[in-house]
Amino acid sequence: MRPGTETVRLEGVHGWPRRVARSCQGGCLLAVRATRSGLIGFYNSNNLTFAASIAFYTLLSLFPFLLLVLSTVSRLAIGPTGAASDTLVEFVSNVFPSRFDFVLSQVREMASAPLNLNVVGTILTLWGSMGVFGAVTSAVNHAWGVEYSYSFFKHKLVAFVMMITAGVLAVTALVLIGAVQMAEAHWFAGVFARFPGFLYVSGVFMRNVPTPIFTVVVGLIFYFVPNTAVRLRDVWFGAILTGLLWRLAFSGFAWYVRDVSRFSIHGSIAAVVVFLVWIYLSAVILLYGVEVTAAYARLRSPTTVGS
């Protein structure tokens, strides 16, 4: 063995904490720079207008989309439509920071009414459901700063794929939630009776599961929607930051609107206004996450953004 070889090897073994520390420090500095650049980019853009567009199209597309979900559940004979409606109501209650009765009542009415759609009705419902996904696609491409946006037909195709993916995720979530509820009612009834803590853990899980789902969905949107080359490893910092900000906004907004009746606008109109405000706030957080993700990717590799 050459003189000094053992010394170099020992330095390599004992120097890994220093390398890890330098790597973590560089990652933190990159994250801080991306967060600041994203804030500047958001301030200098038209993202607030796009967020308002997303809120408007969400109100128009929500009920056609839920109608498609309930229709799919009933046609697949996954379970009684009433049970699917109760599961969907519970899922919607966990997604939104307040119980928007105008949404929940419409879900129950759609579940109780016949869901047989003809060809023309299906096409119109699909077109109505695609509105919000088209708005999200346009907003994400604008916030990302792509040079060339999608053509009309490709834009509609991307919105259609997003709608189908969201529908599949919604139906899958309904099936899983229904299966869990059935298992709780039949298989684990005695366990829950003996150990009430399990029921509390199950409730906490159901209340918080939308946050990781939202984070993963946001990451996929950041990766697939922009009309430019995006590396998968570049999207997760922005997606996690967006998920954390959304959860903080969710808790704060839920506390603020805990009693809708205290608003000066009365009745269901107040619920609609609060609903639009919440969707607008969520869209603002989403587009800020896009700006941060684009800045993060630009700092890591300047040739990956806007090309």
Write down the secondary-structure element order: HHHHHHHHHHHH
Terminal CA distance reads: 52 Å
Task: Please state the overall shape, judged from the principal axes of the Cα atoms.
Answer: globular
Instruction: Classify the helix fraction into a percent range.
Output: over 70%
Number of domains: 1
Q: Class by helix and strand content? A: mainly alpha
Q: Major sheet, described briefly?
A: none
Mean pLDDT: 77
Question: If you had to describe this structure to a student in words, what would you say it looks like?
Answer:
The protein is mostly helical and 307 residues long. Helices cover 79% and strands 0% of the residues. The model has no long low-confidence stretch (mean pLDDT 77). It has one domain. It has helices at residues 5-14, 16-43, 47-75, 81-95, 101-112, 119-144, 152-186, 189-194, 196-208, 210-224, 236-256, 268-300.
